[in-house]
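Risk register update: the risk of archive-format incompatibility is retired. Evidence:
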Amino acid sequence: YFPFGRLSSSIDIHLLAPIFECLDRFIGALGPSATPYVDEIYRALKSYLFNQNKLYCVYPLEIFSHICFIDPGYEDLYLMTIDKCVVYLNDGGHIIIQTLLTKSFRYLLYSNKEGLAAYQPMLIEFCEGIIRSDIDYIPLRESATSLWCGLIMEFDLQPNEEVLGAVINSLPPRFDSDDLPFVSVFAVYVARK
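Archived output:
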């Protein structure tokens, strides 16, 4: 049981996005105060990781990565989440899955960048592919841009000039975007370079 009710083991696919958005915002609003609920959240969501539908697997990964972001002490959860995210990212797939994965990797990056060091080239390539593409799904473009910005800053990389130009031209993201704070920090970072 969650403090707000019981989570069914089979959520209707049309309700996945709003339910997990609420849970993500709940964790974000509580910040470190969400720690007492982590075990309960993990127990309720871990069964979704084995679902045949990838959407059911990836939504909990975003929640787990957000938990690692607010409390980097969950090393086992961090490592499991990275491993699962890499598997799904390498599978390719649906734009919503890709969006959730880029958000997950962004949380993981700011939780413990050393854990992502081995995947940094793959993630840069993935993000640059989306930034250069003609994909018109704005949440994916913004989350890939946000992750790319974070990778450039955290690993102190020399950005590809073409991609950097595309990123600068795409700023700012939507005013209600979760990516806005991350990209804003990057804008300051670039201005200082």
